[in-house]
Amino acid sequence: MKKEYQNIQSSIIIDDSNLTNVTFNQAWEQKGKDIDLEKLSLELVKLKKEMLSHANAAEEYTAIANVASAEEASEKGEGSKTMQFLAKAGTWAFDTATKIGVPLAAAVIKESLGIK
């Protein structure tokens, strides 16, 4: 479904999937300068390994796949894509990151999920 958004300066038409991209691009523009993607990538490796050791259900493997995709995106310097994948990884990824002590990963997942 396409939607049109207008303001005084511009008018854009986007579909629902692109709206998500705009949101993460904006979040990255606001917070990205403070995030060390290289360090984040290293923490995501640890997170992925820990999640793999506890996964039992299909949705847990989906979360792991999203963490792996976020790891790859962070290695490429693609911050907004990293955030998109981490949002899809969900609260299990956030809880696990917090539990195992990877603070940067936990903070970026928290931001990506919109948790205050």
Counted beta strands: 2
Biggest sheet layout: 2 strands, antiparallel
Element-level helix/strand string: EEHHHHH
Strand content: 5-15%
**Alpha carbon gyration radius:** 15 Å
Oligomeric state: single chain
Distance between the termini: 30 Å
Number of helices: 5
Helix proportion range: over 70%
Question: pLDDT below 50 for ≥5 consecutive residues: which ranges?
Answer: 1-22
Overall mean confidence score, pLDDT: 82
Shape: globular
- Within the largest sheet, what's the order of strands? 1-2
Structural class: mainly alpha
Structure write-up:
By secondary structure, this protein is mostly helical. 73% of the residues lie in helices and 9% in strands. The protein has a two-stranded antiparallel sheet with strand order 1-2. α1 packs across α4 (79-100), α2 (37-54) runs antiparallel to α3 (58-75) and α3 (58-75) crosses α4 (79-100). The longest helix has 22 residues, at 79-100.
